[in-house]
Structure to design on (526 residues):
């Protein structure tokens, strides 16, 4: 014999408590699987500034900032602006670090060899080599 | 509108157990069935979205370490599921770079190469370890094959020009004096002694070895050894001397861009490489001084004592870092015709030759194997130099 189920009350009458618990468990499980399996939101990137072998600063890329660091050959100005970081001024002779421009991708590096200063982006935009990333894994120069 | 179970009941529903009465019941209720269908579909979609999202290469994430090594910046990437082993391998790779730098630098008086230089002209041969022995042996081999376009004894000329720290155009007499002290055929290897150590000797006082054109590539090769013990997929980049092994974590080739010689913000092209393969570039734009509008750079022709005049960059692809690094020098010095022919004579090498014309435009010429590696834009103009 069949029962018309044209109202929520009829549905409730036609099912056992265990049925309802099973249905709820399936729905909750699906929801948890979807939310739990989702990639966590990307944290705001940061720029690590290393001088010699010492970590001198961690600069959040979502906060504009200008900092000056003392290196082995003088001073280096590191600027964070609009989610990217650059060496904007340096006492080094060839200004290679200044010419390296703005970096925002995780893993990208700016180096001032004379000052032994390294700026490395972590947790920013997709890293070099990531699927879809346009930047190369390395540059020969 | 309502439906009833049994009106058009799916055959499978007949066999549903009583325990799933809800499903059976809802299958016949239009309002609730719609809800069920939507909720069920929602659940399936959610599950599918969670389970079927694009697979990340998280199984073997790319571990990266950057730092200063061999007088420049080193960047090493390693794909490995074992983060502890990967970190240890990266540390070992940097330690290996430091070890090679320590024995090959001319700036440390007690380095192996400094001891050979200090004994120049004394008649005494200096015992060296297997690394310096291998570096010098390859240097002499390439010097012989290139008829001296590369010369590991170029030290006096580099000093006369002040490269790389304080470049300045020297007087002609200074160039002539330095040039007289350059000659790979006056660098001799004595066979290994009973302890297995080879010895090297510079014939004349004032001669000196400068390994700036070869040691970095050798260091790249050595740094690869601890990485290879952990994973087949890695990339070593020491100041633009690059060695790749295997592929990226997602299985695609490594991408190595060639610096545009006149615009540091641009790439000339991108090479797609599956390792083992190595890439090195010699260019006139890294270390130079301008004299009357003429760029005097650090890629010196050992025979003339002056910077090689005809090209602005040469990129070499080779099976290993040592060869890529050293081969880019004679290719540059020999120039657009002879250098190109020299690379083509070596089937294990490929090359990209870039020449700047008077109007500032670039002419790019590639050996035949480059096209299969090139993924980026074609060479600036594509015409032969």
């Amino acid at each position: 014999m069949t029962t018309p189920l044209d109202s929520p009350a009829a549905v409730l009458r036609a099912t056992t408590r265990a049925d309802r618990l099973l249905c709820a468990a399936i729905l909750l499980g699906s929801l948890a699987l979807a939310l739990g399996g989702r990639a966590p939101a990307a944290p705001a990137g940061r720029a690590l500034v290393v001088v010699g072998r010492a970590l001198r600063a961690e600069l959040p890329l979502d906060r504009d900032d200008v900092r000056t660091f003392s290196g082995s050959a003088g001073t280096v100005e590191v600027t964070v602006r609009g989610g990217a970081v650059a060496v904007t001024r340096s006492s080094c002779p060839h200004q290679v670090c200044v010419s390296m421009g703005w970096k925002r991708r995780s893993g990208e590096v700016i180096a001032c060899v004379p000052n032994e200063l390294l700026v490395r982006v972590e947790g920013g935009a997709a890293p070099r080599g990531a699927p879809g990333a346009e930047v190369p894994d390395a540059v020969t120069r | 509108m309502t439906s009833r179970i049994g009106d058009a009941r799916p055959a499978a529903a007949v066999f549903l157990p009583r325990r799933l009465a809800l499903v059976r019941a809802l299958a016949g209720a239009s309002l609730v069935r719609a809800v069920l269908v939507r909720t069920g579909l929602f659940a399936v979609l959610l599950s599918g979205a969670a389970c079927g999202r694009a697979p990340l290469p998280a199984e073997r994430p790319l571990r990266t370490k950057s730092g200063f090594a061999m007088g420049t910046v080193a960047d090493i990437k390693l794909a490995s599921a074992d983060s502890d082993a990967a970190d240890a391998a990266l540390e070992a790779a940097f330690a290996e770079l430091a070890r090679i730098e320590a024995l090959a630098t001319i700036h440390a008086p007690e380095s192996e190469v400094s001891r050979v230089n200090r004994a120049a002209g004394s008649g005494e041969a200096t015992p060296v370890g297997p690394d310096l022995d291998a570096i010098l042996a390859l240097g002499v081999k390439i010097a012989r094959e290139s008829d001296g376009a590369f010369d590991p004894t170029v030290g006096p000329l580099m000093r006369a020009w002040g490269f790389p720290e304080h470049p300045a155009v020297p007087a002609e007499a200074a160039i002539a004096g330095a040039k007289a002290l350059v000659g790979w055929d006056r660098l001799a290897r004595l066979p290994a002694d009973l302890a297995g150590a080879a010895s090297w000797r510079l014939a004349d006082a004032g001669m000196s070895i400068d390994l700036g054109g070869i040691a970095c590539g050798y260091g790249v090769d050595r740094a690869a050894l601890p990485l290879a013990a952990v994973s087949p997929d890695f990339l070593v980049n020491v100041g633009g001397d690059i060695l790749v092994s295997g592929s990226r974590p997602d299985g695609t080739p490594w991408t190595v861009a060639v610096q545009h010689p006149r615009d540091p913000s641009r790439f000339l092209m991108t090479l797609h490489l599956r390792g083992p393969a190595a890439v090195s570039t010699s260019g006139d734009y890294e270390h130079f001084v301008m004299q009357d509008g003429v760029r005097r750079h650090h890629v010196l022709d050992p025979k003339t004592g002056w910077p090689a005049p005809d090209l602005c960059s040469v990129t070499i692809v080779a099976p290993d870092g040592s060869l890529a690094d050293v081969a880019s020098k004679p290719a540059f010095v020999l120039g657009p015709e002879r250098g190109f022919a020299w690379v083509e004579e070596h089937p294990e090498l490929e090359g990209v030759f870039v020449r700047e014309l008077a109007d500032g435009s670039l002419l790019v010429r590639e050996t035949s194997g480059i096209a299969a590696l090139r993924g980026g834009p074609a060479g600036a103009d594509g015409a032969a130099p």
About this structure: Helices of chain A lie at 8-14, 17-37, 96-99. Confidence is low (pLDDT under 50) at residues 36-42, 127-133 of chain A.
